[in-house]
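Re: the multi-chain job from yesterday

Posting the exact lines I submitted so nobody has to dig through the queue logs.
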Amino acid sequence: MKIPRRDKLKIYGDLLSVLNDESKNERIVLTRVQVRINAPFDRLKKYITDLSDLGLIEDETSLKLTDKGRQFLREYEMILDFMNRMGLAYR
Amino acid sequence: MSQYVEFRIAYEVTSAILCFILAWFMAKPYRLTREIRYLGLPLAFSFLSVSYFFSAVIYAQLSFLPNNILWFQLIARTFAFLFLAMTYHFSKKSSKTSQILLNVTFSLIIVAIIASVAAIIFTPQFDFESYLSTSGYVRIFIVVCLTYITIHVLRSHIEKPQPNTLLIPLGYILLAISQYSLIIWAVDLSMFAWWGALVLRWGGLAIFLFVAYVSFYKSRKKG
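And the result, structure tokens for all chains:
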């Protein structure tokens, strides 16, 4: 089966979701994030820099979500859930 | 004004308000993704809202309104369901070719809307007989669109069976039966079919509203 390409929004959404999930652990291990997000390490580092520039995570070392990041993730998950219920796919 | 007319005006206005609220919810996926393929949803419910509003105005029999307002509500309703079918058709297609095809389809629909509205404005006389036959064809077209959408959403549900994805196919099925009931009513003037159609339309819209409420408000409360 052909896996559709993810766009930036989907990647950022997925990454924020994984970071939020991983932040429940003692520390966030980047390789585990990489496996869960299914992206090459260099590109993952770039995405993290982007998220930090957008103010969605605190900084590139702690990787904790900011209030803005948490709010974005909440909205993102709600809309994805709505689209899923509506029978609409978002790659 | 008879009691029935008063009821119908209230019914159509309520339907228009429900669709307007739904259009606001349906705009959320587009506002997040900015993808044109999700623009069909808010447009569809906005057009439906306009169509029901026109119906209310027609029932009110306001003397200053032109006769061709009947046609405007028909156009709004037809394109509403066309937008819905377009959205579902392209929702799973993200290739470049599909994107081009979507843009072409979307442009063609816009041109068709403008052409239809222009035809109604610049063609002064449309007789009631031709309106009745056209509305019959429109209902058949709507049933076809809704059947296509129902199959699409049911297929999505079967691919990933979750209890929360079962309500929307039910909503579309109710809307399809409502339109089918109107076809039955046009053929044999069955009052059961007529009232059934009205009840089912509200049932379908109520399901959509419930799904939107659960997605955006109940989950927020939980979070």
